[in-house]
Amino acid sequence: MRLFTAMLGTETNTFSPIPAGFKLYQDFYLVRGGRHTQPYGFFALPLVRFRERAKALGWEVVESLATFAPPATRTLRHVYETYRDEILADLKGAMPVDVVLLNLHGAMVADGYDDCEGDLLQRIRGIVGPKVPIGAELDLHCHLTQEMIEASDALVIYKEYPHTDMVPRADELFDIIQGKLEGRLKPRQALFDCRTIGLYPTPLEPMASFVKRMASFEGKDGVLSVSFAHGFPWADVPEVGSKMLVVTDNRPDEGARLAEKLGREAYDLRLKFEPPWMDLEPGIDRALAISAGKEKDASLPQATGNGPVVIGDVTDNAFGGAPSDSTWVLRALLARGLTSAAVGCIWDAGAVALAEEVGVGGRLQLRLGGKIGPISGSPLDLQVTVTGLNPDLRDMLGGGELPLGRAAAFRIDGTEIDVVANSLRSPTSSPLAFTRLGIDPMAKQLVVVKAMNHFRDGFAPIARGIVYAASPGCIDVNYRRLPYTKVRRPIWPLDENPWT
Ligand SMILES: [Zn+2]
To answer: Is the pLDDT of residue 292 over 90?
Structure first.
């Protein structure tokens, strides 16, 4: 048997000011021929798993391009077409293949292509023909389209956000596709449109229980896999929004009924699925109240009284396409006279370069952040001491590695506020982003991370509380304010009742 694998992905925020060209992909993750190195990159995990499973069966594996870019605006047309055509050329060169497995995102948009994954899958189907099984693993922040469904035999989507289950989902997909290849299974996919836009962290209730409920249907009555495509709200494409996908063993009607049943349940729970977003100043109030023991974070019942309260600077999350250089939160902390915090990572390669010039212990009059545009706020002018440098800072998420680039830590004069700046726009996912620069988050009253929800996996074990604070920024969590033009209607919350 000969397996062909590839990865081409990003999560496109069509409202982002960050361009997406070759460099964005090359600097973040780009490997050819399966040359993944350990510790494996976060996005390489499914590909490595597909390879392990295939090799264990004695299959030959042909590994094509594997590249992923941090979220930004639409990928430039020639960049998408170049990478796509490289994969297609590799596939033609590898023919005949018996099976194709891909790691895709599902929300990649390029100039001229609202559905890159649908386009890629259809072209792959055109090359391999109708009989070769095609499977793809997708991020749950995908725009699941009928084109993707029709061109594939099975799609399996992460169930967890933070994305901690990429490897189990890779196994789930491999099992289905292997079953099809061996003639034991006839996978049929049923899609239900939940007609809603939202963002749903899965460690929080009632979403945590809903994930368990979806999984409870799997493995019986012919149900092979149940996936909830949460959708990615910050994309002006027709198919934005939440969808329910059920893969059965040749039971399309039962699959459609289950997809509708679970999809309608998800719609009914949509408001409870959203995290408790707070505006910036009330969010800081809440963080300070938890820190002082006046309030408790019910989502962290196991939290001890020792750790910091972690504020997610959600609107400036690099993994949603934001610049990651906004100064709103740090400015607010300084305006309040707060003195104990760790803040990171602010994307400011210029600040890193100045720090590298003076070295650890060096003093700087630093203009920090606020470079990308008005949504980032004004830069902050600070007197600082460089307290740490790291030439290749790496963070971890879901068992995979995320690069943060060159990094520097600064102590702001007259405070115990430590700020990390980095050269590669990427979210802050775990305490490693601080400890690898000599900053101890446990010693701080507050930790501010430029991230939306992935940080929960790394910080929940040490946090006394977690607050989702929304300052002005690129990732507006009030979906009604987003300037959509292409989105299919009706859909909630743009339409009050999308079922009429
Ligand atoms: Zn995601």
So the answer is: yes
